[in-house]
Design goal:
single chain, Chitooligosaccharide deacetylase, five-stranded mixed sheet, alpha/beta, about 300 residues, NODB_dom
């Protein structure tokens, strides 16, 4: 068997085989207000499903994490931070990290640079007001990082981004403003693909059982454990926090604990560990230059010719 399918796995703390964070995005009705601005008030069923997150799922998840002595990272839009402060305050009190996730779940790659800057800064005010500290991590809504985002994050002192999917381990994004650590995930670790059927958001996936979904999530973990990778979920409280799915999360954590040699940590601690390795020369990650393309690539032929 290959020693590792990862060419350059980082050394994890205490000889761990892999690093794990159950990261969540708590969007709540920011999704409604960005996609159905004029009709959000009339979509009560959808709103009730989204509100399940802060009122039911978050307390449930906090208890699960407390049982296993785990701390996680939850990315929350600024509007949702201000609208549901009780959930945010409960997460912070339990020791969990709150990451930046835009203001109203705006997709950065649909905005001008100035507009994206305003969105970033407006949400930072929510952190000052409710969270009590500035975020060090960012995840673009819908993974929609723009060609400007990395520069804007560097200018504001962020430690890491968590929007991209370019490796199995942390790597560096280099832009004209400097460098930023990327903590990547993958669509295979997104619960939206497994569980969400919501036509109002353009998503009509067949809903999988928790057992089928966990087959995917566990297989990805087993690969990370075998080869020294990074396992970061992209889950949503109103989705994975539902009763049967939350019960399946407990089983997944039990599997991870039974495997042993797993470093469970919030993403800010994963980022700090990697930055420490880089600073001491103990490990050198791969670097991607951002943006990937600066000019349009023209076709050699037109359609049909």
């Amino acid at each position: 068997m290959f020693r590792s399918l990862i060419a350059n796995p980082p050394p994890w703390p205490n000889g761990a085989r892999c690093a794990v964070c159950f990261s969540f995005d708590m969007d709540v009705e920011s999704l409604l207000h960005i996609h159905h601005r004029d009709a959000a008030a009339s979509r009560l069923a959808t709103s009730s499903a989204l509100r399940y997150g802060p009122f039911v799922a978050i307390p449930r998840l906090i208890e699960i994490w407390k049982h296993f002595n785990l701390r996680q990272t939850i990315f929350i839009p600024g509007w949702s931070i201000e609208t549901y402060p009780h959930a945010v305050e409960a997460l912070v009190a339990a020791g969990h990290e709150i990451g930046h996730h835009g203001w109203l779940h705006e997709r950065p790659n649909t905005l001008s640079r100035d507009a994206e800057e305003r969105v970033l800064d407006r949400a930072l005010q929510s952190f000052d007001k409710i969270v009590g500290e500035r975020p060090v991590g960012y995840r673009a809504p819908a993974y929609a990082l723009s060609e400007h985002t990395v520069d804007l994050l560097i200018e504001r002192g962020f430690a890491y981004d968590a929007s991209l999917m370019g490796d199995d381990v942390p790597y560096i994004l280099r832009s004209k403003r400097g460098t930023l650590l990327e903590l990547p995930s993958d669509v295979a670790l997104d619960d939206w693909i497994q569980y969400v059927n919501m036509p109002e958001f353009g998503c009509q996936m067949p809903i999988q059982s928790p057992q089928r979904a966990m087959e995917v999530f566990q297989a990805e973990f087993d690969g990370a454990w075998t080869h020294g990778g990074l396992w970061i979920s992209v889950w949503h409280p109103f989705v994975s926090g539902r009763l049967a799915r939350a019960d399946a999360i407990v089983r997944l954590i039990e599997h991870m604990v039974a495997k042993g040699d797993v470093w469970f940590a919030p993403m800010r601690e994963i980022a700090a560990h990697i930055e420490g390795l880089i600073a001491t020369g103990s490990w050198t990650p791969r670097t991607d230059d951002i943006p990937f393309w600066t000019d349009r690539v023209d076709h050699l032929v037109t359609s049909g010719r």
